Amino acid sequence: MVDKILQEIIMPGFYETDAIGHINNTVIPMWFEKGRMPLFKYFTPDLDPGKWNLILVRIEVDYIAQIGYEDQVTIKTGVQRIGTSSFVVQQEAIQKQAVCARGQTTMVHFDYEQNKSMPLPTGIRQVLEQHYWDDD
């Protein structure tokens, strides 16, 4: 499989800092969401909320090092696992060549009218497989 990790460059803002002077821990999950946007477009190409068919059911973030507002941050995004109706996204926030935060998010393909999960379409599954995160 092709190891195609997605990357998003973010320039932190001073407004994202907290009283201690580093990026607030609540900001990282929002940056991770920005990093997942290309994956979201496979499901809803125009990102129209009225057509949305994903829900977030779990998010974990490990904070490893402080992130400052003065240097850009690279958000790396890949797919760790694909299930029948869900997939797990693995992400890292990197600043100055150091991993500062790691996260995992579980997304479920969801039918809001029936209020239940639905299987991932074969075509989307194949595209998600192109973004497998290979730790080797």
Instruction: State the share of residues found in helices, binned by percent.
Output: 10-25%
User: From the 3D coordinates, which CATH architecture would you assign?
Assistant: Roll
CATH homologous superfamily label: Hotdog Thioesterase
Work out the number of β strands: 6
Q: What is the approximate shape?
A: elongated
Give helix and strand order, one letter per element, not per position: EHEEEEEH
CATH topology description? Thiol Ester Dehydrase, Chain A
What is the gyration radius calculated from CA atoms?
16 Å
Average pLDDT over all residues: 94
CATH class bucket: Alpha Beta
Q: What can you see in these coordinates?
A:
It is a single chain. This protein is α+β, with helices and mostly antiparallel strands and 136 residues long. It has one domain (6-129): Hotdog Thioesterase (Thiol Ester Dehydrase, Chain A). Helices cover 18% and strands 38% of the residues. The protein has helices at 27-43, 122-129, and strands at 6-10, 54-63, 73-82, 86-95, 98-111, 116-117. Strands 1, 2, 3, 4, 5 and 6 form a 6-stranded antiparallel β-sheet that branches. Strand 3 and strand 4 form a beta hairpin. The protein starts with 5 loop residues before the first strand and ends in a 7-residue tail after the last helix. The model has no long low-confidence stretch (mean pLDDT 94).
Short description:
This protein has helices at 27-43, 122-129, and strands at 6-10, 54-63, 73-82, 86-95, 98-111, 116-117.
Summary tags:
136 residues; alpha+beta; Thiol Ester Dehydrase, Chain A; 6-stranded antiparallel beta sheet; 6 strands; elongated
